Amino acid sequence: MSEHFKPLPALIPIAVSARHVHLTQRTIEQLFGPGYQLSVHSPLSQPGQYAANETVTLVGPSGRLTHVRIVGPPRTQDQVELARTDEIALGVDAPLRESGDLEDTPGIRIEGPAGSATLEHGVICALRHIHMSLTDADVLGLKDQDQVAVAVIHNNRRMIFGDVIVRASPAYRLELHLDTDEGNAAGLNSGDEVMLAELAIGANLD
Questions:
Q1: Considering only CA atoms, which of 170, 66, 152, 178 is closest in space to residue 111?
Q2: CA angle 164, 80, 177 (to 5 degrees)
Q3: What gap in Å lies between CA 130 and CA 144, rounded to an integer?
Q4: N or C end of the chain: which has fewer CB within 10 A?
Q5: Sign of torsion, CA 33 52 182 7?
Q6: Among 13, 26, 22, 30, residue whose Cα is nearest residue 50
Q7: What is the phi/psi pair of residue 182, to 5°?
Q8: Distance of CA 62 to the CA centre of its chain
Q9: Digits of tens for pLDDT over the chain (206 positions)?
Q10: Would you call 166 helix, strand, or coil by DSSP?
Q11: 109 φ/ψ angles, rounded to the nearest 5 degrees
């Protein structure tokens, strides 16, 4: 561990999130039919969240991505989360945003088995973030919206991810969320662990 990083007492499990969509019930019915209800493929680590059996196709200006998983339950806003390589494939330039921060984001067309929907906005590249309970945050001396760094030492590959947003809530379980590009860059898979670290301001990483 570099002397420029002050480890905090926590190993953080990670989840590598592939491209996925969160949809309102209205959009679900546009894509799958009136009254349609999502079905659970597998529960996710965050309480109440699940990967649905249902998938959709995303259609952008220069390409399409099929079999994109819906994450349930239904949301109050439609949101599409992509990695940068997905954006290139679709021809979409999505900003780095926290989940739910959708103002001035690009839109996209979504196709399902019973219809399609055109989103005027809602496509983002999600900022890397750590979910944690309020108890975890208190133990670690952190609070919601703090920014931290995590240190990866895995399979002889060392990397620091900075600007990681803390998302603290009573409903959350401790877990770092990375997208597939970030996970691949560090050689990480869901279930691996990283070390929570504090990056010294002005540190020289050479």
A1: 66
A2: 25
A3: 10
A4: C
A5: positive
A6: 22
A7: -65, -45
A8: 23
A9: 344 444 455 889 999 999 999 999 999 999 999 999 999 999 998 999 999 999 999 999 999 999 999 999 999 999 999 999 999 999 999 999 999 999 999 999 999 999 999 999 999 999 999 999 999 999 988 999 999 999 987 777 788 999 999 999 999 999 999 999 999 999 999 999 998 876 544 333 34
A10: strand
A11: -100, 135
Q: How many residues does the chain have?
A: 206
Structural domains of the chain in order of their starting residue, each with its CATH number: 5-15+128-199 (2.40.40.20), 19-126 (no CATH)
**CA separation for the pair 188, 195 (Å, rounded):** 13
| CA atoms within 13 Å, Cβ hemisphere of 60 | 20
Query: Which structure tokens are listed for 119?
Result: 């989103």
Q: Within 13 Å, how many C-alpha atoms sit on residue 204's CB side? A: 1
Neighbours of 13 (CB within 10 A): 14
Asked if the peptide bond before residue 73 counts as cis, ω within 30 degrees of 0, the response is: yes
Instruction: Round to whole Å and give the CA distance between 108 and 64.
Output: 10
C-alpha closest to that of 168 among 152, 189, 147: 147
What six digits make up the tokens of 7?
């480890």
**Which of 95, 18, 26, 93 is CA-nearest to residue 61?**
93
Relative to beta strand 123-126, strand 79-81 is: parallel
As given in the structure block, the two tokens for residue 199 are: 């990056």
